[in-house]
Inverse folding.
């Protein structure tokens, strides 16, 4: 690390994605906080700061990934918090929210504390964790997130994850009564994996003998997703509870949600409902699934071009607020079992920002849209304090990207411990050149480092527990 950097950084001549405009200029952080933004440039370097000349680069607020599976504890051959965090900063992600379907599943304060302690020691960006709901852990949930009347907000704890349908791991709450108890009884944000377990089980016998990947999306169809989404919305509305619907995949759900969701900062009162999509559901269709096979097996599945088109329409019209990755690494060895035995899930944190910025370059959206979906709106959805925008007083979490430099995605350049990437063979732009956490450059990609890039800090040297205001 540059000895002058103590969270003191001066970025010169960048095309800055400010909240209200995109404009050339300089940005300074002091002690990790954005202290000065000068449109047009002209800031003079101080003695005690590191200087980066960002000519030709875009400066974005660091991406915030609200759904990752970093596999700790229990599956270090796939990922752990340290390796996942390193992979994330290589993709310009300065903050992440991690899921509890671990081995064992994280369902109480002891498990949450274990993750918080490990993240403080091994991560290089900011972290938050979901606690997992089970049909019987209401008291444990309340200890962590409080009750509806008295929500708790502990730094680094972002809400409760409910798997309404079975996926990877053992977590499952599918009975209406159990779900109702949770929506009635706990505080904080509830995030749901919305697939209807009864319909999955009922239809399984018709598909269990199929060995072609197309069967996956046929079995876990859009009605399966819609039924669970509708139930979650019903419960959130009945109990006026904050609900976030994870990884929306179907046109059916996205159309049904129109008028039912709103960004918290623009909503009135309680019971706010938000949702997200993944870059893979905005990029891959049935032809990609046929070509790539089980690498693209995930839950809910990659669907059809018609679904993708509606997801794009609904993220543009604001029905969908943000973009997450659902980074869910599985080893190639496990994937080699083929369909249907291969586990569901794919890595995502290294390529989500370039994938979305490539869509921007190709005209499907703008860079400003990407910043809203991957930074500002995520901070809004989770009530994060001082995150998600290049604004004076906000945390100095930044990413400098190169919109001109094209590079092909290869498995070899992966940071994730599983060593592969679902975008292999695709040429993307918008690669992070420098990723900055609280004013400290933590990652760089230069001609000397090659396309893979390098970490600039040691495990635990950057990143803190994300502060999120309670939902009241
Ligand atoms: O495909 C998936 N993989 N969907 C999930 O819900 C979980 C994830 C995992 O943890 O592997």
């Amino acid at each position: 690390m540059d000895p002058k950097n103590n969270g003191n950084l001066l970025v010169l001549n960048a095309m800055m994605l400010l909240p209200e405009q995109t404009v050339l200029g300089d940005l300074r952080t002091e002690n990790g906080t954005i202290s000065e933004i000068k449109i047009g440039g002209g800031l003079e370097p101080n003695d005690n700061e590191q200087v980066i000349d960002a000519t030709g680069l875009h400066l974005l607020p660091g991406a915030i990934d609200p759904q990752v599976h970093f596999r700790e504890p229990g599956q270090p051959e796939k990922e752990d918090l340290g390796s996942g965090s390193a992979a994330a900063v290589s993709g310009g992600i300065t903050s992440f929210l991690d899921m509890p379907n671990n081995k064992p599943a994280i369902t109480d304060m002891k498990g949450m504390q274990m993750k918080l302690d490990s993240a403080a020691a091994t991560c290089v960006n900011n972290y938050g964790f979901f606690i997992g709901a089970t049909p019987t852990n209401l008291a444990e949930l309340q200890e962590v997130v409080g009750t509806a009347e008295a929500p708790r907000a502990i730094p680094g704890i972002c809400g409760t994850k409910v798997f309404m349908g079975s996926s990877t791991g053992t977590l499952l709450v599918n009975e209406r009564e159990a779900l109702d108890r949770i929506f009635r009884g706990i505080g904080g944000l509830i995030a749901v994996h919305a697939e209807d377990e009864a319909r999955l089980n009922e239809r399984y016998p018709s598909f269990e003998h199929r060995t072609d990947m197309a069967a996956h999306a046929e079995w876990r169809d859009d009605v399966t997703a819609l039924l669970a989404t509708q139930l979650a919305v019903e419960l959130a509305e009945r109990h006026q509870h904050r609900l976030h619907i994870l990884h929306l995949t179907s046109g059916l759900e996205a159309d049904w949600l129109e008028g039912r969701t709103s960004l918290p900062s623009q909503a009135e009162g309680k019971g706010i409902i938000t949702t997200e999509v993944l870059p893979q559901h905005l990029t891959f269709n049935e032809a990609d699934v046929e070509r790539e096979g089980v690498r693209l097996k995930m839950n809910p599945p990659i669907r059809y071009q018609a679904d993708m088109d509606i997801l794009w329409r609904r993220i543009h019209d604001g029905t969908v607020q943000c973009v997450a990755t659902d980074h869910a690494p599985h080893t190639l060895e496990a994937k080699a079992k083929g369909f249907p035995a291969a586990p569901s899930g794919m890595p995502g944190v290294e390529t989500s920002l370039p994938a979305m910025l490539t869509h921007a370059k190709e005209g499907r959206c703008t860079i400003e849209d990407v910043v809203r979906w991957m930074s500002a709106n995520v901070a809004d959805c989770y009530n994060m304090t001082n995150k998600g925008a290049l604004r004076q007083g906000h945390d100095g979490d930044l990413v400098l990207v190169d919109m001109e430099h094209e590079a092909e995605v290869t498995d070899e350049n992966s940071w994730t411990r599983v060593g592969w990437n679902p975008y292999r063979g695709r040429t993307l732009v918008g690669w992070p050149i420098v990723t900055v956490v609280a004013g400290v450059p933590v990652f760089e990609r230069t001609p000397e480092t090659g396309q893979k890039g390098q970490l600039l800090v040691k495990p635990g040297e950057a990143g803190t527990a994300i502060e999120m205001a309670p939902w009241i």
